[in-house]
Amino acid sequence: MSKLPSAHKFLDLSDYGRPIAILIAKTFKNTRITPIHVTLLFVLSGSIAIYCILANHLLLAALFLILKSILDAADGELARLKNTPSYTGRYLDSVSDIILNFLILSAIWYTTDYQYIYTILAFIGIQLQGTLYNYYYVILRNNLNGDKTSRVFEDTVPIALKGESQASVNVLFVCYKILYGVFDKTIQILDANAYKSKVYPNAFMSLISIFGLGFQLLIISFMLVLGLKDYINIFFIAYTALIFIFIGIRKLFL
């Protein structure tokens, strides 16, 4: 199943790696490689990027961050091609993302001179940005009968789908709630009525896709290569202010 019906597909600026991700998924379709394996590959790629940042191999770090984004899309594509959606994969993907985000920003801090509080603020900002984008995107997907593995409100443990263990779903759901609960709740409070909008215009979704993780990692990659590593955390703290602009647009016009 596609994430969205064709009429409502939008230019997702954070999803630049999708064409390559589709090729990877097609390559693995008739093999024993599962979406979970691909998720573990993006964890490996992100981990290598972190090492490269610490070792000051910034071009390599940028390349592995972009590869991580591509593989992050490929696991979902493979799940759709194999028709094996799972909550295990959904939560493992999200838990892996947030841990890698924290470690990436911490590695950048370790090789710069600014105080760690800026890393914490940048991390909070990045997570709130991504949560807002995902909030609107999941609402859209659910309202249009697209991919429903992600739920608008992650309040209860979902029932395991065919082929996955309920125990695994339970554990990963708890991990998800611990790591994401405060961010989900914050965005839901800031825009509590967003779910009442059945359809968001494609242009609005394209605009807010600059908060997608893929685009965030692309920004980090460019800043690393351009010698702007010292300004990455400050940039994302300031970037967070756009949350209120996007929510304002949604409330006023949508």
Description:
It contains ten helices and no strands. The chain is globular. Helices cover 68% and strands 0% of the residues. The model has no long low-confidence stretch (mean pLDDT 94). The protein has helices at 18-28, 35-54, 58-81, 87-110, 116-143, 166-190, 202-208, 213-225, 232-239, 242-253. α1 packs across α3, α2 (35-54) runs parallel beside α4 (87-110) and α5 packs across α9 (232-239). The protein has 254 residues and is mainly α. The chain has one domain (11-253): Four Helix Bundle (Hemerythrin (Met), subunit A).
Total number of beta strands:
0
General form: globular
- Unreliable stretches (pLDDT < 50, length at least 5) are none
In quaternary terms, these chains amount to: single chain
The CATH homologous superfamily is termed: CDP-alcohol phosphotransferase transmembrane (TM) domain
Overview in brief:
Helix content is 68%, strand content 0%.
Secondary-structure map:
Layout: H1 18-28, H2 35-54, H3 58-81, H4 87-110, H5 116-143, H6 166-190, H7 202-208, H8 213-225, H9 232-239, H10 242-253
List key phrases describing it.
254 residues, mainly alpha, Four Helix Bundle (Hemerythrin (Met), subunit A), 68% helix, 0% strand, globular
